[in-house]
User: Fold these one by one.
Assistant:
Number 1:
Amino acid sequence: MKKINESLIEILHRLNESGLFWFTVFICIIVLFVLLWLITRRPRLWYWKVGTQTDALTSIERKMQQLEEGLKNNTVPVIAPELIEQEKDAAAEIKEEEEDVAASCKGKSGKIYTEQELEELIRD
């Protein structure tokens, strides 16, 4: 151990004589900070990840409680309002298509023909 200490002291003396001592100390300090930053990186990231997960779970819990209260009071629709509007639009489109099909199957006399009857009329 004494040999190692003596060799370190000798290296430091040589560096001091050559003018590189303070530069070497500065580089060693930077390397030390970088190593500490890398070593503590995983715990720091874990801490922020846990915080984000906690916030998300709290938000989900709050929304679930609001939903439960709304369902108990019958103030929350089971289907989202956007979906209700989409269903109304889709039902209206289907009704229009059915009316168009019915109108196209109607003859001049007002009789509604089936597809098979129309195909037979077209073939004849």
Number 2:
Amino acid sequence: MVYPVQVTWSGTCSGHPAGPQQIDLYDSIQARYTANYYKDQFGNWAHTPFVGTCSWIHRSYQPSGSSSITIPNAHAETCGIADTINDN
């Protein structure tokens, strides 16, 4: 039996992609992807590749110990999701 799963997510988040010395703030995040989950020949849960799209705006950043800096003319960035790694 196969269980199709569709995930949608929207919102804001902060992260440290440049390392702990800086906080990056993102908003207008929209993500949507699908995958099919099933039991493999060993009885373990597995899934088909995640396929979908996402977009976000990198609105500002804050270096450690400083105030937040707004990114002028911030615009939407996008990605395509095609994860071929099977994370059981």
Number 3:
Amino acid sequence: MTQELRAVPPLRPGWFGLRRELLHALATFGCDRAPDGRFIVRGHVWSGLDEEELVVPGDAEAFIDGKPVSIAGLMSQTSYGLRGVTVIC
């Protein structure tokens, strides 16, 4: 029996930090919002048990002028939270 090996895409570094820090940064960077005022996000963002801490995988995206941008990439430009976190889903 032969097993087929498949290439696994590399994990993109994620981000871990506080909800208020993420919301502040998304507003500061000018990320797009839905008509109800919430930020438009593609991908998953998980909250911790207290719902104040967030885990953002490297593939989660927000939009600036309709163009997708990595949320973890944006957050790496701030002093907020922990950058380079590996998030395995």
Number 4:
Amino acid sequence: MKTNSPMITGRLGLNATNVGDGSHAAGCATSLSPHASRLIYQPGQELGPNGCPSGGIRHTIGSIVSSSTSAADAEAEATHHRRTLHSEGRAISPLPKNLTKVAVQALFDQILEQSDARRVTQEIRVPRGSGSSRYVYSFLCFRITSPVPFLVPTELTEVRYGFVLLIERDGYLAVFNRGAKGVDEAIEKKSRPVERRNLTHLFADTARYRKLSTRRMTIAKQELRGASYEADDLEMALVPATAARSILQNIRMATEEHGSVGVTPSTGRVRISASKTDIDELVAFVDQTIAGINASTASAFLTAFPEPVELDEMPGDVLPVGLLFDLGGVHDLLHDPAYPHTLVAPGSLPSVDQLLDGLSPVLTLRDDDEQWDVIDESGAVLARMKRLKNSYSIRFTFPKDYAIEDADGVAEPLTQWLRRHSAFSVTFTSPEYFYSAGKLYRMAGFEQEVAQVRRFLHPHPPLDNASSEKGGPYSATAQSFSPDSIFGVVERSLATDDNYLWCCDLGDEWADYIGVGTGRVTFYHCKHGGPTTGASDFQIVVGQALKNLSRVKFRRPEVQQKLQHAEQRDYWGATRIPLLARDYDAGWTGLEENFAEVLADPNATWRVALVLTALSLEQFDQAAARATPTPHFIQLIWLFSAFVSACRERDAQPIIYCRS
């Protein structure tokens, strides 16, 4: 049989017979698809006594293969699937104590009831391994019979299969499931949530962040409410000012040991790419995740984003004033090409479009003694919001008959879906706070800005001995800048990786130096001064750098014209110091050709570097460690933050070279 969607199949190592609901597990061949766990069989295959094709149970315990065509082509296709800790909701969480067989049985019974499913087979708390390799798994496979969703009305039914796999390992519970309802609620009663910060900084010691989905701390109609960013290395590409008011929702990173890893901190979902996988490799994946959670590593880059705080940390005079229902998740489900959902309503109620239109605007909160009416522009009450100990809850006034129905016909009331996902955001009388996805966030503060700036400081020891910017005075026969000048340091040690180094000082300056290397252009802006952590001594050089940001990624005619003027004078001032400080092999012609190669290279790096002697890394760290930062240091951080942000907006990499 052919199928257009990837299919995950596996083989369970057990021989189950009657499991209590009249079905016989042995002889039922099923497949678990990431989009729909549907019953499949080959034409002419003999059916078992319960209507299942004969051949044995298949699911994710055992060897897992993927196929985009047929099971027979799986090995040849070698299609990868994504190993995921729990497709929705909490994926991995600490266990206060080991589960019992009674507790697991009750959990499975609850899932079967909420999923309107019948048990096919199960295994409860089966130990494997010994010593440090010991783990316990529990497995439930179930069958759902429902009307065919694409024929209305119809008496035809279809059979689908789902599963829940629990792995208890080193005091944690990992959950893998498909097609199961009520898993979140059942697991929450048995475990504790993982600290969100630990999930956010998972594998931070080796991570290169490639994609972020964020929620902006606003509900205003005229502002962006969400954004996604993607780059080979977002740490070098993202504008720092963007982070301060952007809540992380999804993170995609590249790591040395684990490859591509995706994390959803709010739900505990962790995803890595994998090919064939057995349960022991799943356990290894769980071990890696647990080790990452318990590690003390943190990313300075991600620290710049707002982090959740407790409701009790918000001042008592800060009150909620506005609410917006986050319907983006609903629309994503409705327009998912691989696994589309439908929002349905009984004929006696207003249409689905009318309901969504009514829930989409920014709504006002009217205080009513620790509760708030959620009202629209006409004054109609759409819901009631109440403050709990650690969160806010919503109770809707519109009927529960509106439901989200998946491609398999499984329906969930819209009100329940919105509550389960905490799909609403709240603003307060202080813009410093924002409530989203069930958590209160406080805007990243000054410490995060300091950490962001420090990432771009690069101490260069030869600058410790520089006593001036250009040195001199120079005689007419001088052939180089003094080694104790910034210009001398740039030419002798700082820019040694550049093939060509062009001194642009005097005249129409684009920078003090422009260095051109293989796939790279660097603009060097130099400034000498006495030791300081104040901003005033750096305003001129930062202003010069910002003024010339328009030169980044210039067009070829611009550099040709600039070089034509430069070639008319080979030396700096009235000396014999060459303006082409480093000549790779072909003089000005070679420099122009190297420029042309970089301009044609889509992967070329453009850098803007400040070279400063008035700043040392040691002094910066001392100023940053003060309990109360000085006004001068605050201004310095603001100045450098503006420089970094402006460079990022021009797709340039900022660098600040300083004394050690």
